[in-house]
Write a structure and sequence with these properties.
mainly beta; Jelly Rolls; 2 helices; 10% helix; elongated; binds magnesium ion
Length: 264
Amino acid sequence: MKKISLTLITAFLTVAVFAQARVPEATEAYVELEKVTPGTNNSAPSDAIILFDGTGLEAWQTQQMGPGASMSDISKQIPEMDPDYKGDPAPWVVENGELVVKPGSGGIQTKESFGDVQLHIEWLAPEQEGKEGQMYSNSGVFFMGLYEVQVLNSYENPTYSNGQAASIYKQHIPLVNASRPVNEWQEYDIIFMAPKFSDKGTVVSPARVTVFHNGVLVQNNVELLGPTCYIGSPFYVAHDSKMPIALQDHGDPMRFRNIWIREL
Ligand code: MG
């Protein structure tokens, strides 16, 4: 008798638990989310850090490392990077609320350091007589100063595919070419996930990047092989978990505006 009732109770409880799991409430989660007021027309959401809003260059300074062209010996350069680097005021020009590269003055980098981020940046490749390929309106957004999303006039301006606009330079070809013509404003919305390293300096997870170019998905969570190198094959060298964002001076009077970033 006792045995039967125990079996009945067990069966009843099993049915009860099963029945409970089948109600819709069993799979509902309630969490108090942080509130963010979204922007309009690509303006910054309320929790973004403004890197350039058309006024000044307070968020920027001269770049500690040279532009992408000097990335070929990364193994020596990364250990020499000074986390407390204090550069000079950014030498680029603010004109009509736009940030203009001063060719030959070198790249600029943020004073603040970042790891995982969402970045919005708008850029314009000016028309230039007699220029072509990589030399026709080139710049770049370098996450952590090391990982370049290419900025280039890629509207009817052929070059190597893994070096055109929205490529992860020499690592990932964009899915499509969503370029607008020269002298038109273009947008990047980029998710950058920083690489993670163990205490021993091995890669725990590589850097990953997603890029929307003018609203079109062009890089879908691609995995980076290391810093984007001009010459040679990329490989990782362990570095800090947060480092500055840099913009490249490739000798062209590129224009930028409306730059904001959200830490993830
Ligand atoms: Mg570039």
